[in-house]
Write a structure and sequence with these properties.
Length: 342
């Protein structure tokens, strides 16, 4: 969405304090990041509650304040578009590039806190995964039976069938454009979740698809062929059933595999993971780790293996740090540590 196109439900439909739309968005995002960074210093027992509060605030900001698409596809597309405008239309270039560049800059400092604390797509998935965990805990004895596993397969198959039926019905009444290709990502996500649940594909092996997803979206952006993100319906000023349906699929998939979209197909998450390899802050396991597995059980994105944090999977939610009974995990300034070592 470009400057001047504002959804009807946005709280800010006119310049605020003489600031144009991009400044309002940027200011809102900066406030969210500052809240997230401040919350990193919160006590372990309260930190996850603070994080959920930041997530709820971010969701409200995205729905009522943010004008341009900050979806997982949109930020890549907006960055490429903004770069192309450098040297010709500086104001519009700033509009398109300000938010993605801000996210990247903060990621280099604090790691992918955007993914773990702010991203609305991640927030919806995390809520779905938390609900699934609560249900699973209540019926944990029954879930150990083979019939429970087959029921999961059946429910997922029924949802996939319903999803494809709705897609075909929408296609017969509304022409799908290239922008609606997010439905292909949604269908692929359901198939990947089914493969993981049935044991026909390893979680780690499927994560390479994030790289494929990233370069696909990057290529489409370079070719100026837009693909609308899931969650775009929250930003758009027109009906966007394809985006809404894709978002529903992301939420349902997260009921079966924690943050499935983040694990397997999120292109922006792939970029954040690459940047996290060189970011300043990182979660590191100390020597007093006794391999109890508490951190691995608490990580909803599967970023911990054998007590060690896999950097390019971590989203800096710090759930592992806060749930470690030995307090063996800590947030470390790796840049400073390297300087001290030298």
């Amino acid at each position: 969405m470009g400057p001047g196109k504002v959804p009807l439900w946005k709280a800010i439909e006119a310049p605020l304090l003489s600031l144009d739309e991009s400044h309002v968005e940027l200011l809102s995002l900066l406030v969210l990041f500052v809240l997230g960074l401040a919350a990193l210093a919160a006590p372990r027992r309260q930190r996850q509650w603070v994080r959920h509060l930041v997530q709820a605030t971010a969701l409200a900001v995205f729905v009522y304040v943010v004008y341009s698409c900050l979806g997982v596809f949109g930020m890549i597309r907006n960055s490429i578009h903004g770069i192309g405008l450098i040297g010709s239309v500086f104001t519009e270039s700033f509009f398109w590039m300000s938010l993605p560049v801000t996210v990247i800059a903060f990621t280099l400092v604090s790691g992918p806190t955007f993914c773990g604390w702010i991203c609305p797509t991640g927030t919806f998935q995390e809520a779905a995964t938390a609900l699934s965990e609560r249900i699973g805990h209540r019926f944990r004895r029954w879930r150990r039976r083979p019939a429970a596993r087959w029921l999961e397969y059946l429910l997922l198959a029924l949802f996939f069938t319903s999803f494809m039926t709705v897609v075909f019905r929408l296609g017969s009444s509304r022409r799908f454009y290239v922008e609606d290709a997010s439905l292909y990502w949604a269908a692929a996500l359901l198939l990947l979740v089914f493969l993981v649940l049935t044991g026909n594909a390893a979680d780690g092996a499927l994560r390479v698809l994030r790289k494929v997803s990233f370069f696909t979206i990057l290529g489409s952006a370079l070719l100026k062929s837009a693909i609308i993100s899931p969650m775009h319906f929250a930003f758009a000023d027109v009906n966007d059933p394809a985006s809404a349906l894709s978002t529903l699929v992301l939420v349902v998939a997260a009921l079966f595999v924690g943050r499935a979209w983040c694990r397997y197909l999120c292109p922006w998450g792939y970029l954040m993971g690459c940047l996290h390899r060189v970011s300043r802050l990182r979660v590191v396991a100390g020597e007093n780790c006794n391999s109890c597995g508490a951190c691995q059980r608490s990580c909803r994105v599967g970023a911990i293996s054998d007590g060690q944090v896999v950097v390019d999977r971590c989203q800096m939610c710090l759930s592992c740090v806060d749930n470690c009974p030995q307090q063996a995990l800590e947030v470390v300034d790796v840049w400073r540590r390297r300087q001290e070592d030298h």
